[in-house]
């Protein structure tokens, strides 16, 4: 099969994507939207699959958003392979790929940013100043361009999911945010575009995140309820694997993201860790009744 037929048409401009979505919307179709930064993997495929099952027309955006990267982060080396990404979109039966240039999303002279307070404090927000402002700004712009009925987000980026949900509720944007479960490799490693940076030995070390989450759940299952004691178990797991450096481990209410001192219901355990230069995140909602 010629390579060209394995890829979806990639639209680059705002008028083009608006025109592509206009017809299915006018026909009463439900528009599903999967915003991504490319580097697509089975986690993104699961979002597309869900969108395909629930919507009549599925748009995937591929846009490495400069506004959500810090000055010392991996914006320039973030994986970019539009051919492979659009082939994956085609396999997952998306209808169209929107891959705008930076100027299409941030026209010269633009001044508007969107920021959610409170929920962006702590966790990744504490270590990536401005990151969530970049995420909410680009999501608001993309939602406004595509005008979807539903947008699909992975639970791996749990804080991002809650921040975007809050923005949509506060700004009364007329779309549903659909959370989708984290997809893991067989050994438990959460799929992430950044896994592509890991050497085989770093990939082994990266399993420490999943091991720490499971060890914490095991402690809770045995009856641990004190947050400090559970976090000690997490820190201990990282001490045993020096190639993985824990940046934070936090226990939070999974809905409000308020810090938790004692576990008395499902509780989010969120982690970030460096393996070499690669920053990875993962989380698990700990279940006291498991
Ligand atoms: O999760 C991501 O890939 C990005 O943060 C998103 C939601 C596409 C915004 O750039």
Which structural class best describes the helix and strand composition?
alpha/beta
Helix count from the secondary structure assignment: 9
Bound molecule types: pantoate
Model regions low in confidence, pLDDT < 50 over at least 5 residues = none
- Mean pLDDT rating: 96
Radius of gyration: 20 Å
Give the number of DSSP strands: 9
Note the main sheet. Answer: 6 strands, parallel
Beta-strand residue percentage: 15-25%
Order of neighbouring strands in the sheet with most strands: 1-4-3-2-5-6
Description of the molecule:
This protein has 290 residues and is of the alpha/beta class. The protein has helices at 14-26, 42-54, 82-91, 102-105, 124-127, 131-146, 158-170, 200-221, 227-239; strands spanning 10-11, 31-36, 57-62, 96-98, 150-154, 176-180, 244-252, 267-275, 278-286. The chain has a 6-stranded parallel β-sheet, sandwiched between helices. A 3-stranded antiparallel β-sheet has the order 7-8-9, covered by helices on one side. Helix 6 crosses helix 7 and helix 8 (200-221) packs antiparallel against helix 9 (227-239). The radius of gyration is 20 Å and the shape is globular.
